[in-house]
Amino acid sequence: MMTGSTIVYTLRTCNACRQLREDWSNEGILYEERQVDDNQVWLDEARKLGDQVPIIVYSDGRVEVGYKNMIS
Fold first, then answer.
1. What is the rounded distance in angstroms from the CA atom of residue 37 to the CA atom of residue 57?
2. CA of 26: how far to CAs of 7, 23, 30, 51, in Å?
3. Fewer CB atoms inside 10 Å of the end CB: C or N, the chain?
4. Can you tell me the distance from the alpha carbon of 10 to that of 28, in angstroms, rounded to the nearest whole number?
5. What's the number of domains the chain is made of?
6. Is 70 contained in some domain?
7. Domain range holding 27?
8. Residue 72 is assigned to a structural domain of this protein
9. Using CA atoms, how far apart are residues 17 and 22, in angstroms rounded to an integer?
């Protein structure tokens, strides 16, 4: 899903990422997903923020690693 000022770095094989996508879709939360397994630039960006996904970067600059106590 694109649009919104929140960016979420994900991997295809990440269960926490799948749960986040499902929950946020159901809640109508807009975000830009950046699958790091598709793009080296996004992978490099994500590595600067954390070493596990999902990595959520909110519009206010706050960074959160993981989702509902799940990480991959």
1. 18
2. 17, 5, 11, 27
3. N
4. 18
5. 1
6. no
7. 7-65
8. no
9. 9
